Amino acid sequence: MRGGGAAMARLAVTARAFSASASAAGGVAMVQGASRGIGLEFVRQLLRRSDEGRVVATCREPGNAAELQKLKEEHAPGRLAVLPLDVTDESTIEAAAASIQETHGSLDLLINSTGILSIPNVIQPETTLSKVQKSSLLLAYEVNAVGPILVIKHMWPLLKVGGRSETGRGFSLVANMSARVSSIGDNGLGGWHSYRASKTALNQLTKTVSVEFGRKDNIACILLHPGTVDTDLSRPFQRNVPKDKLFTREFSVQKLLSIIDSVKKSDNGKFFAWDGQEIPW
Predict the structure, then answer these.
(1) What does each C-alpha distance from 203 to 13, 67, 110, 279 come to in angstroms?
(2) Torsion over CA: 23, 26, 30, 31 (sign)
(3) Do residues 205 and 145 make contact, with C-beta atoms less than 8 angstroms apart?
(4) What DSSP designation does 244 have?
(5) Model confidence at 6, in pLDDT bands (50, 70, 90)?
(6) Is residue 60 helix, strand or coil?
(7) Are 34 and 260 within 8 A, CB to CB?
(8) Handedness of CA 166, 169, 173, 176 (dihedral sign)
(9) CA–CA dist 218, 220 (Å, integer)
(10) Per-residue confidence (pLDDT) for residue 192, from 0 to 100
(11) Residue 119 has what pLDDT?
(12) What is the pTM of this model?
């Protein structure tokens, strides 16, 4: 979430032009971490795309997810399902997978958007090594890295039989929300030890999964950096962000969906920024 400017621009190794298409409009899409922020906006925009696509939104407490419940009421029955899922409780991931199997039988798109950066009196981005705590490291790893990979693990059988023709892709896709600060090659500022390292771990786990999928499954995995987005996650750290670098949720998700729409099977295992630039590991 942090950084920018000329140094980061120089480190962007490639850029691709991604254009909007209808590939994410059909089929079944799951958004994990959907009760607010970027995840909620993914649900909104996916539902707007067509009258046929179905969306499964997961969050820890669906009963308290007022915006998701409102979206469910606004759309036709069956368009949006809201399921409980806590990435720190694997049994809830298994239960969500079983529910999707029973209702839909497959998944065409999985978006993992859960992320933790700060919680008052629990975890804060570290500004120096002396502030690093074991509890913060473990919590960040559990939510930002371990959780998303367990979600992929349990959704794998559904993704294997996804990628239907109406998506326009011909393969299933996993998109994990990472961050530019996870890049080791792009780390010129230091700090934020727990968040950086946990997102770097997510990158490695996603890359490793992508290699396995590339050998035997019709599934691709990519990592996405949404930019610095005006959400609860980034709000305490926006003071030094230039206005033109602080994105609305609508803008960021629109750009990310353009990448998701246009991604090719050969992009399996790659890490893209919101503008289509490939980010160095």
Answers:
(1) 17, 30, 16, 11
(2) positive
(3) yes
(4) G
(5) very low
(6) coil
(7) no
(8) negative
(9) 7
(10) 92
(11) 86
(12) 0.88
| CATH number for the segment(s) 21-276 | 3.40.50.720
Closest listed residue to residue 79, CA positions, set 44, 40, 116, 47? 47
Domain coordinates of the chain in residue numbers?
21-276
What is the per-residue pLDDT for 2? 41
Q: Kindly give, in sequence order, each residue whose CB lies less than 8 Å from that of residue 212, ignoring residues fewer than 6 positions away.
A: none
- Residue 159 · residue 56 · CB < 8 Å: no
Residue range 202-254, pLDDT digits in tens: 999 999 999 999 999 999 999 999 988 776 665 556 566 666 677 898 999 99
- The token pair at 230 is 């005006």
Q: How far is CA 139 from CA 87, 117, 123, 147, 149, in A?
A: 11, 10, 8, 11, 15
Written as six digits, the tokens of 162 are: 């996804």
Amino acid at 106: S
DSSP secondary-structure letter at 26?
S
Whole-angstrom Cα distance, residue 127 to residue 124?
9
